Here is the input.
Amino acid sequence: MSAFFANLRRLDRRWIFLTVGLLVVVPLLTGFHIAPVLPSARARGFYDAIEKVPPGSTVLLAGDYDPGTIAENYPMHLAVSRHLMRRNIKIIAVELYPGGPPLADQVLHIAGAEYKKREGYDYVNLGYKSGNEAVMSAMGSAGIPRTFPADRSGTPVGQIPVMKGIENFGQIAMIVSVSAGYPGTKEWVQQVVSRYHVPMVAGVTAVSAPEYYPYLQAGQLQGLLGGMAGAAEYEVLVKAPGLATRGMDAQSLAHIFIALMIILGNLAALPQRTPGAKK
Amino acid sequence: MKKFAAWILVLVLGASSTTAFGFPLKAVDTPNDKGNNVTLSWPAQPHPPEQWAVLRVEAGKTYAAIDTIGGELTGYTDETAKNGVPYQYRLAGLGAGGAGVFSEDSQPAVPEPSWFDTGKLNVFIVITLFLALVLYYIGQAQRGKQWSFRPIAGLAAIEEAIGRSTEMGKGVLYVPGVQDIDDIQTIASMIILGNVARMTAKYETPLMVPANSPAVYTVADEVVKGAYADVGRADAYRSDMVRYITSEQFAYVAAVNGMMLRERPAANLLLGAFFAESLLLAETGHETGAIQIAGTANVHQLPFFVVACDYTLIGEEYYAASAYLSKDAKLLGSLKASDTIKILLVLTIVAGCVLLTLGNHTLAEFFATQ
Amino acid sequence: MKREIPLLISMAAGIFVLIGFFVPHPAIRDIYDDIQGWVIIVVAFTYVLGMANLLRINTEQIQRRAKDWPYKLALVLSLIATMIVGFFFSRGSHYLDDGTGFSWIYLTFYSSMSSTMFSLLAFFIASAAFRAFRVRSVEALLLAVAALILMIGRVPIGNAIHPAIPQIADWLMEIPQNAAKRGILMGAALGVIATGFRVILGIERTYGEGGGT
Here is the structure.
């Protein structure tokens, strides 16, 4: 037994890396399925909030992430685009990350093709603007057309049918924030929700999701998706299982392995421990 | 068609000097704004029309429709008014159930910009109290008053880590976070960097400061140069101590990890705003055998630092670092003010909880921000 | 004067921005909005300094064949190539549009490498969990138990093992975690205010006047 613990203490971390890699890749490649995804109350809040938006309204879809967090944010971005288009809700997309616009274009075109929505009439991507919170603030004070005078392809917003009548947040029924960090959900809440009282839901990375629980409890957010798990729950609710749902099996195995590593790590340290020893 | 109906209504109302009226309509200057806004409110109607036409008139002119809104609404803000001009308003029903339905004429409302946002009164009071306490305790500090503060292991370890690096003949890596200079955490990091640079100058320890933004690079470079000059070691300062890497998050992490693996610093100081890269930095640093002291106010990264680093400064400990390291009396005075206001806030929270439990919402509503 | 002028500028700007937060009147708010715009412009100019520093340090290391100098050469060449493609072959201000050279470089190289770096977290979390997560006290034991419940409860297999696991995980996140986090956030917020006051009042001078006391 002591030999086992000794070997465990000397374990090269590359074996840990290899095991994690296999546990993630094998379910993705083989479709190995462990357990069904059960939507949480937070995901239900997100779904219900969008269900309450009247058809024909306009929603601001802020895709504030870049390819670095594509695994977590892209599935929720695509799922919410599908949900909005299915409900005939118009979408004005903006991005505050320079790497965001191509991803937003992709989700809007995919969802638009599925639900036969036309760019310019049912949705528009206004693209990226630098300035972080200053952009959000300007959208409210100077107005959305003045902050984004043209869409991503250079068409003046005055010539875009879906932008007709849109001046500022007064004409926006809801903000949907898909965010990787800064600038993102917190800044939208601070700059827009607290000033203009626009309803808002958010999809964020798993590591930052707990940061937004106070906003959820205070009512500043109506729903919250956390990481790929949240995206998978939402995909189940909108009945469009996709990348996130497939990834949950890999994530389940990885989580179990990490839990095992915590236990094994402590067992490995056990025979060496002397009373009162501290780091 | 609806727009046509609204215009017909406007002409009819404009032509008639007196019109049969319905429910009351209240119009007031929108409070706490920069002007040009008038807020309308009215009681909910038992059978609201499909839509309301919002009509507005200035003295000497006729009513004109300025907007059409949903019939279910009971409030509206006119954002196109001019400051100093009195306006009156009227609502007229449109569409199904709207024929002949309209409100009384409102009282004249004059939009004006506000000089103080009363919605932020609670914040103003706390800030003013805080500032008063800061000035009071600084005054006390200048008169020689001293306080004792609990030791923070991470801060005491900074000098120890620099000493260790000197003994081993290796350098100190100082990572100021991944946010730009406008973030208060980065400013706090620059302040701590000044103290750290004075120590490395004294001990002649190599210092490396990779900056993630050009503004941070500029400030950090000045801070380090000034710190070396401060202790009379301007000759030891080298311009490549501080270098700009990149503003892209993961490219920055890759570069800093590369520096850790190549240069093998004996001490890593990760002090600033961090996001997903925190564990990447901490684990790589651990692999090189460096002593690691981290500090951030981003609570979601704290667990990674707590697990992977030797010492972690949590939230306000990080902001208190400059006072602890410099031991400057005025800075310690501001720290005392922080502690005092915290005690007051805790008492307020307790009082608020008790009052809420007893059914009194006054204190809770006063501190609500929306 | 070298010390006083920066202090006066930061004091004036800080007090003005603080007042601007409470005063919506255009006499103050318009200047407040302008100052925010000036910040963006000033920061934009610092990119010139940053670029110069980057090129200088790396070219020096290439010239003296410092350790791993080929990587520095790759950096400099990539930087120059990306700038040339971005300025001259990417439709000007539409450089991020689909189909431009810059967009191709960004998606092919940077996005892939950025996602790869982010994905390293999964491996590092596992190795950190094994190496560093030691139960040496009652608090550490509580932390470990909470971590185990959350790891299992946040994935579908947790519900498959027992429906109570995700419920306990949610409770842990919503109640104790939120309470602790709010305490840390409040303390940090007070630290932010204190630091801001120290800078505005000119007590904290280190960053402003280059380390002087």
Q: What stands out?
A: The mean pLDDT of chain B is 89. Chain B touches chain C through 89 residues (CB under 8 Å). Chain B has two domains: 2-94, 153-319.
